[in-house]
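Hello forum,

I keep getting stuck at the same step: I have a sequence, I want structure tokens, and every attempt I make locally crashes halfway through. Rather than fight my setup again tonight, could one of you with a working pipeline run this one for me? It's a single chain of 426 residues.
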Amino acid sequence: MTGLNELSATETLARIKSGETTAEAVIQECLDRVVEREEIVKAWAYLDGDQALEAARAVDRGERTGPLAGLPVGIKDVLDTADMPTQMGSPIYDGWRPATDAACVGMMRNAGAVIMGKTVTCEFAGSYPGPTTNPLNANHTPGGSSSGSAAAVADMMVHAAFGTQTGGSVLRPASFCGIFGYKPTYNIVNRAGLLFAAENLDTIGLMARTIDDIDLVASVLLTRPLTEAARGEARPRIGLAQTHLWDEATSEARFAVEDAARKLSDAGADIVELRMPESFRDHPSIRNLLNDFERSRVLAWHAANHRDKMSDTILAQVDNGYTISWDQYRAALQQADAGRAAMDAIFKPLDFILTPAASGEAPEGLSDTGDARFQGYWTILHVPTMTLPTHTGPNGLPIGVQLVGPRWQDNELISWCKWATEILIG
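Reply #2:
Ran it on my machine without issues. Output:
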């Protein structure tokens, strides 16, 4: 029999609502999975099973209600939680407890979700990894910086989890771990209660094992109805974007995109090969400049007072940020704005864009979370993106494809993702 922890969020909630099972039983099976696998996966920075079970019992008693009543959710440990530590992947914040929930966490609680715990993040949502492993092969990275969220969802410890993306921190781990990852349009999910990494890039996103579950949680965060899948006879116009990074993707990542394009074309889509503007070649370096400049301000106090508790990786970014002039920073902001305007024009005849989600399979080893440029290329444009777990590489690890939509057209992108999922995954 399929365990309650293995079901989709949508089916789990239906069973709780119908009385076929209880919220307590769902949480207990998730906790059992954690006990079974956490020693290997190391997804959790903090978890209190008794607290989670009591929250579930409150759902079963009818004291906590809402569209997500009883749903187990993981919270990336850079988002504040009033009843749990928020430690940022840094010893500087060891045991620190904020007074309030982050806005997105509060929305989950208000909707009846059970906050299972805090998932491991790279230090300050950067690139210095925590202990988490890829649940499909513990010798490979889960990606970062939302490593614990991706691993916990993929390993069926929790049904959905929050991540954040400044470069590639939602899409990359989702692709590496074989789940759905969603980075919304920049700043449509309220960021109160998030310690910024780079405020012009940071976006709160979601991870789940089905596209319907992504839609369900997003509907609560954005107070909107569920999204209908595009009709089976739909004929979307899809931009095939190899981007300036195409030659740096592995052959299997390129195959995944080309194979997906063929299958979507066979289903009626009109595939248009896109040549991205030459100025977009600079997106990775512009994103890095914005990242380092803004991180150096966010972490100025930390570096001045607790330098010995920070990794060389994050300190290098902070120190580099101090060398960037206002004129350089302003020019980067202007280039990013120009890219967004260009992207708006590119999208006018298109429904969505198809492009690699990552460079390939999750790399072996835990010291590097992987190449973030394939996601950061789009993060700087503030567009909504989704990774679909469509393919498998030569090492038996997942390879996703990335669907990109126009700014603020998140509902439409999710609708097309549902359509594409039916064709590419079934």
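DSSP finds 14 helices and eleven strands in the chain. If your local run keeps crashing, start a new thread with the error log.
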